[in-house]
Automatic annotation (TrEMBL):
Provenance organism: Umezawaea tangerina
Residues passing through the membrane, by range: 12-33
UniProt name for this protein: META domain-containing protein
Keywords: Membrane, Transmembrane, Transmembrane helix
């Protein structure tokens, strides 16, 4: 673009550079945040309930269910819960120091069986902790909501 003497150059160049700089700065922040503690190591996988606050797990009754009651964390940010009959998927995030967030549960069937309240544990949790093959869900006050053992397969 040619500018005659005494005319001001258009400001759009600075605007484009400003937007480009903002996008680059945002990308750097996201990369650095994800590098340091954006996930609890080892949370991905399938987890079997060992104890749930306010609920007694009865292996004899749950053995009659059509599927095993599990919680599964997938690396794509999807969490699946099964109560032994019904399955529901939920988007999740695990941040620094195990901060746990989730989206709204997706659709699910409503098949009756001896249901294990895995979905309730997930919805109450505000933090998760993995210690070897043990996953603990904690509420906002740091009280244990559920404890799970890593399941095979």
């Amino acid at each position: 673009m040619h500018v005659e003497e005494g005319e001001r150059a258009p400001r759009y160049r600075w605007w484009v550079l400003g937007i480009g700089g903002a996008v680059l700065a945002t990308a750097v922040v996201v990369v650095l945040w994800n590098r340091d503690g954006a996930s609890v190591p080892g949370v991905e996988g399938r987890w079997r309930p060992e104890s749930i606050a306010g609920y007694t797990i009865d292996p004899a009754r749950t053995a009659a269910n059509p599927r095993e009651p599990l919680v599964e964390f997938r690396p794509d940010g999807t969490l699946t819960t099964s109560d032994g009959c019904n399955v529901v998927e939920i988007p999740y995030t695990v941040g620094e120091q195990g901060a746990f967030g989730h989206g709204a549960p997706g659709p699910q069937t409503d098949i009756g069986c001896w249901a294990v309240p895995n979905l309730g544990v997930v919805l109450k949790a505000k933090r998760v902790d993995v210690d070897g093959d043990v996953l603990t869900f904690l509420d906002g006050a740091g009280v244990e909501v559920g404890r799970y053992a890593r399941a095979g397969g």
